[in-house]
Design brief:
single chain; alpha+beta; four-stranded antiparallel beta sheet; 17 helices; elongated
């Protein structure tokens, strides 16, 4: 039986978590049915009417929802590429006998329970969802589309109804022989010919020539002949993922957080489509501008997904490197429509870290061999294009000379450390901000360590200069006890203590003395040890803004770095205490609220986009590290500055 008494959140924990049964069978503790109502899709996040909440799986581009009123039909489908609902409900009962349904979202399954019958929705692949209807189904019950899109065109193909839309997307509804089908102008009817206790409908989404209507019809008919097999495969897949990540010694409420992170990451998985040449994970399905893949987002997602779905983690790395430029640059973001790609800037280098996390879980030397030259070219690119004075210390920059794109390259679009910064030219299509950034060089230090590790595993050479010790010494401001950016002109520090200062601790290049000095700021409740710990800037900074994007709110990747700083430097109990503050205080995290892009430092209220993958990724990493003791310093005390550090990190 799991320990539940310790660390149970007092206010955020729902009764659902408190009274979860704990059967003797340990396998039951990793079942999706231990996590009912993992997300409440019927509620639009407060003040976010433009956001969409979807049930999606298997990399699909077709999502479903739950209407706020307790209706008897699933909402949708929703076209994720076209960013619109194709119907209010493609399959809706034309009778009122099952009104006032209650929705329940289990990992991988969405259900509606009414007074007369129950409906269950799962995905069998990226193109196909399976609707199961069971209960008291009266003979003559009729189903039809509810408010289909104005451009919908209906046609019948044997046992299927085909809805065609502008842009080439199609939805096919395939019914078993228990139904009589008719197409009536801009709608259809599917009527039960006899009373049955259980029936199924296949919902197919067609978007390219790899799954034509003919192919999908044949697949749907096969599915309806053996639906129980598909249902079991879906259950096995989700239970398998949960078993890989759920830790039996953790509190039940924290298990629920871990399960929610998997649901969030998988719901944002997209199959290859047009410009996305491999499967990838998007930041969030909730807002319409997030349907592409971003570089440092992708590295984060892969690092987390590697623990339960390594094949997707690999493709999620490949999807960005498919667009690697001849000079080694990995561009900012890519979309199915390549006209939307952003080549103006890159993103902070975390790719080798993602590959290393995949290596730890798979020991796939072929994947390592595939990625090594790409990673090496990307690492070299930074020093060739973003080191203005060739001193081995890099700057964020852009290809078009704009500060806007350079700030995007940092990932911290409006960070206060860039207030008043300017651009300087390095060469053709290469510009730098006029300050060297500590986080960029910290990431590069970690990339160096891992590339040395990969080279040793593969028996290949990696002979770039080692800048790691220099980076730690260069950016530490003894005057305030913090890591800060430095201006190129006069080498002065940019004294605006912010989250970039956490990074040298996470990558382990800071000395124990530097960490000891920085603890004064890290543990100061007026600065960084806030209600939700480790905000993007010190909370007492006059420029702090509660909803100022990178000027105050909590971003969970940066909070993760701050927490893991304590773990890396031998203070695991402190790291666990801060982790509990995150898990217990983020509003709705242990309940049914979605995971948000960022959070209010002082209240834990979710901000910006819901269902956010990178927040989910770092919550999962925090869950995995909780209770563990480690010291990952690249330069442990009294050790020489050599490749013993790389060996230590590899452990």
């Amino acid at each position: 039986m799991k320990r539940v008494s310790q660390f149970i959140p007092s206010l955020c924990l729902t009764a659902l978590c408190l009274f979860r049964p704990f059967p003797a069978d340990a396998d039951r503790l990793s079942s999706r049915y231990d996590f009912p109502q993992i997300l409440d899709l019927s509620q639009t996040p407060t003040g976010r009417a433009h956001q969409t909440q979807l049930f999606a799986d298997m990399g699909t581009w077709m999502g479903f929802g739950v209407r706020s009123t307790r209706s008897s039909a699933f909402r949708g489908p929703y076209s994720i590429l076209q960013r619109r609902w194709l119907a209010e409900a493609a399959i809706a009962p034309a009778v009122n006998g099952n009104a006032d349904c209650k929705a329940n979202y289990f990992p991988g399954e969405l259900t509606l329970q009414g007074s007369a019958f129950r409906q269950s929705l799962i995905y069998t692949d990226a193109h196909t969802a399976l609707l199961t209807i069971s209960g008291k189904l009266p003979r003559g019950m009729c189903w039809q589309a509810l408010r289909p899109a104005a451009d919908a065109r209906f046609s019948r193909h044997g046992s299927s109804v085909l809805l065609s839309f502008k842009g080439g997307e199609q939805v096919m509804l395939t019914f078993p022989k228990d139904f009589r089908l008719e197409v009536k102008g801009q709608n259809y009817s599917a009527t039960l010919k006899r009373r049955v206790p259980r029936t199924h409908v296949a919902i197919s989404f067609i978007w390219d020539q790899t799954a034509t209507a003919e192919i999908q019809l044949a697949k749907a008919e096969r599915l309806l002949k053996a639906p129980e097999t598909a249902l079991q495969e879906n259950l096995n897949r989700w239970n398998g993922w949960l078993k890989r990540i759920i830790r039996q010694e953790m509190p039940a409420a924290y298990d629920r957080i871990a399960a929610k992170t998997v649901v969030t990451l998988v719901s944002n998985w997209r199959r290859q489509r047009r410009g996305l040449r491999h499967d990838g994970i998007i930041p969030s399905h909730s807002v319409d501008y997030f349907i592409g893949c971003w570089a440092w987002d992708s590295w984060r997602f892969s690092a987390a997904v590697a623990s339960f779905f390594p094949s997707l983690a690999k493709d999620n790395v490949r999807v960005m490197f498919d667009w690697q430029q001849p000079d080694g640059m990995v561009i900012d973001c890519i979309y199915p429509d390549t006209m939307e790609n952003n080549r103006r800037n890159s993103k902070p280098p975390l790719a080798a870290w993602a590959v290393d996390e995949i290596w730890k879980h798979t020991h796939d030397k072929d994947f390592l061999r595939e990625m090594f030259p790409k990673l090496t070219a990307y690492y070299r690119w930074w020093y060739e294009q973003r080191d203005h004075d060739h001193n081995g210390i890099c700057e964020f920059g852009s290809t078009d000379g704009t500060l806007e794109a350079a700030a995007w390259e940092s990932g911290m679009d409006n960070a206060i450390r860039f207030d008043g910064a300017a651009m300087i030219r390095n060469g053709k299509n290469a510009w730098s901000i006029n300050q060297e950034s500590v986080d960029l060089n910290g990431y590069l230090a970690l990339e160096y360590t891992l590339l040395k590790k990969f080279a040793a595993i593969l028996g290949q050479r990696f002979d770039m200069p080692d800048q790691r010790r220099k980076i730690a010494d260069w950016f530490f401001d003894d005057g305030i006890g913090w890591f800060c950016d430095r201006k190129l002109a006069d080498r002065s520090f940019v004294r605006e203590p912010g989250c970039e200062g956490y990074l040298p601790f996470w990558v382990g290049i800071a000395s124990t003395g530097q960490f000891a000095k920085a603890r004064a700021l890290l543990e100061d409740p007026a600065k960084f040890s806030t209600f939700i710990p480790f905000p993007t800037i010190a909370a007492d900074n006059p420029k702090y803004s509660a909803d100022g994007y990178w000027r105050g709110p909590i971003w969970l990747d940066q909070t993760y770095y701050g927490i893991e700083a304590f773990r890396e430097y031998g203070l695991a109990d402190e790291a666990d205490r801060y982790t509990r503050q995150v898990f217990d205080r983020l509003q709705g995290l242990t309940g049914s609220a979605p995971i948000y892009e960022n959070y209010d430092t002082f209240t834990g209220q979710g901000l910006q986009a819901a269902h956010f993958s990178w927040s989910a990724a770092h919550l999962l990493l925090l869950y995995e590290d909780y209770g563990k003791k480690k010291q990952g310093l690249l330069f442990p005390p009294k050790s020489s500055h050599n490749d013993e550090s790389a060996k230590h990190h590899e452990k």
